[in-house]
Design a protein that fits this description.
- The protein is α/β, with parallel strands linked by helices.
- It folds into three domains: 122 residues, Nucleotidyltransferase, domain 5 (2-Layer Sandwich); 120 residues, no CATH class; 107 residues, Ribonuclease H-like superfamily/Ribonuclease H (Nucleotidyltransferase, domain 5).
- Helices cover 40% and strands 20% of the residues.
- It has 18 helices and 14 strands.
- It has a five-stranded mixed beta sheet, with helices on both faces.
- A hairpin with a 5-residue loop joins strand 6 and strand 7.
- It is flat.
- The two termini are 69 Å apart.
- InterPro entries: DNA/RNA_pol_sf, Integrase_cat-core, Integrase_H2C2, Retrovirus_Pol_polyprotein, RNaseH-like_sf, RNaseH_sf, RT_RNaseH.
- Keywords: Endonuclease, Hydrolase, Nuclease, Nucleotidyltransferase, RNA-directed DNA polymerase, Signal, Transferase.
- This is Integrase catalytic domain-containing protein.
- One of its GO terms (molecular function) is nucleic acid binding.
Length: 388
């Protein structure tokens, strides 16, 4: 097989072999295989007619190999001659055709392809595989229950399950009586999900039920990496179960000193300090456009909540500087100005001017608008008033 090369002409062999879709991409001028993909038909797809299954093989192959085929001239080779007319690139499909085949034909119209028929005898390797296909054997589910490793052996599970939960094994086979309902209420509520293996292991769906005597060893293995509550729960969902297992996981993690040391401790955000006088700290923000061209600069005092709004069609740094100058000329220069990182606020001309007049300019964290919540809240109020 070779690596993919877009310069060589490509051929796709699309065939239906028993209950499998079989696709082979080739460099035909060099007769070298490049890529092989296949999948098994679902139970529903196995009920399709022969032509529909052959059409599905072509559709699935093209969509599966989209990254290699899109925008490139491709020849689709099939041993089903009817597909030459179903997927004809220049002719529409008859309205009497099945709806799903029509959808497939429309979807393939996005690709540059031609369909070529070739008898199965001319594709010798495919002809052999179609005749020698192996029959699928039913899977013995009891052999697939313990795929995920557990810190206990199968013999331990069988022995302890018979010792502690033998009556539940009997109830699954013979039925639940009133005494068992009172003794094991949680197991009774999940009785429709419980099952047993031939050798006597109790399972909840595909998870092994762990008895009280084995839970300590399972917990020690589960908690050995100190991965945290959520990670432990995700691992447990794949392997084992017992009543109140989530509560046991939370209790263990909360009482573990190493878990607390390894736990992420996000920084706590505190509120802005309360201003002692009017116009000591102001919050500003820019919003718009309104009516397609107007923008608004909002200035809000943190003490009195008094707002100032300035409208413009060009919200640049020069307009921002002039608007703040008007506010400071009426109310006095504020000690602190809080804004976001907009270009009209972060411009050198604005920051230099603010430093020159003794106003400290604070920027909020990027993508964290609640840091400038007072201005943001008034922006919402302003938009509501303008709509009304």
């Amino acid at each position: 097989m070779l690596f993919f090369e877009r310069t060589h002409p490509m051929y796709i062999l699309c065939l239906l072999l028993m209950h499998h879709l079989w696709e082979l991409v080739q460099f035909w001028n060099r007769k070298v295989d490049q890529l092989f993909v296949s999948r098994k038909l679902t139970v529903t797809e196995q009920g399709y007619s022969q032509t529909q299954r052959e059409a599905l093989a072509v559709f699935w192959a093209v969509k599966r190999l989209h990254r290699y085929l899109f925008g490139k001239k491709v020849t689709i080779v099939t041993d089903h001659e009817a597909l030459k007319f179903i997927y004809h690139p220049e002719k529409s499909l008859a309205r009497s055709s099945a709806a799903m085949v029509q959808r497939w034909s429309i979807a393939l119209s996005a690709y540059d392809y031609t369909v070529q028929h070739r008898s199965a005898k001319q594709i010798q390797r495919v002809d052999y595989i179609s005749r020698q296909s192996l029959q699928d054997k039913p899977i013995n589910t009891s052999d697939c229950l313990l795929v995920q490793p557990l810190p206990v052996t199968r013999s331990d599970l069988i022995r302890e399950t018979r010792r502690y939960l033998g009556c539940i094994l009997s109830a699954i086979r013979k039925g639940w009586n009133a005494n068992l309902k009172r003794r094991f209420p949680i197991y009774f509520l999940k009785r429709d999900e419980l099952s047993t293996t031939p050798d006597g292991i109790l399972c909840l769906n595909d998870r092994v039920v762990i008895t009280p005597s084995l839970r300590k060893s399972v917990f020690e293995d589960l908690h050995s990496g100190h991965l945290g509550v959520e990670k432990m729960k995700s691992l447990v969902r794949l392997t084992c179960w017992w009543p109140e297992i989530n509560a046991d996981i939370c209790r263990t993690a909360n009482n573990c000193e190493k878990c607390h040391q390894l736990k992420n401790h996000p920084s706590k955000w505190g509120p802005w300090s309360v201003s002692s006088e009017a116009w000591q700290r102001i919050h500003a923000d820019c919003c718009g456009p309104f009516l397609g061209k107007y923008y608004a600069l909002v200035v809000n005092d943190s003490f009195s909540k008094w707002p100032e709004v300035f409208f413009t069609t060009s919200p640049n740094y020069d307009f921002t500087k002039q608007a703040l100058r008007k506010v400071f000329s009426r109310e006095g220069v504020s000690m602190v100005l809080v804004t976001d990182n907009g270009s009209n606020f972060a411009a050198d001309a604005v920051t230099t001017w603010l430093n020159g007049i003794g106003c400290k300019h604070l920027f909020t964290a990027p993508r964290h608008p609640c840091s400038n919540g007072q201005a943001e809240n008034f922006v919402g109020t302003l938009k509501t008033l303008l709509i009304l």
